[in-house]
Amino acid sequence: MFLTMIGTVVIAGITGYASEKSGFTRNGYLPSIIICVGGAFLFYFVRIMFGLGFASPGINAILSSVGALIIVPFHWRR
After folding, report:
1. Contact predicate 77/32, CB 8 Å
2. Which segments in the chain show pLDDT lower than 50?
3. What does the CA dihedral 59, 31, 70, 60 come to, rounded to 10 degrees?
């Protein structure tokens, strides 16, 4: 379980970096990585508590990171 959490953080960080590098977001590297890691942690704990999620923890990390990148910046923009 601990290795899954570390893998989730690593995959979320790579997803945040890749989204900035590709031009998907324009938040800056560090904010995008923080947003992705936060979304991945949230989804990781939801999966542990309620059993919701997809079959692979890696797919969960990628989808939750991308979802957080879509939801969080648009929520605070005007």
Report:
1. no
2. none
3. 10
| DSSP collapsed to 3 states, 5-67 | HHHHHHHHHHHHHHHHHHCCCCCCHHHHHHHHHHHHHHHHHHHHHHCCCCCCHHHHHHHHHHH
The end-to-end CA distance of the chain, in Å, is: 39
Q: What is the pTM of this model?
A: 0.86
Domain boundaries, the chain: 2-69
Q: What is the residue-averaged pLDDT of the chain? A: 89
Instruction: Please report where in the chains the tokens 């309620």 appear, as a residue.
Output: 50
3 state DSSP class of 2: helix
In tens, the pLDDT along 30-43 reads 999 999 999 999 99
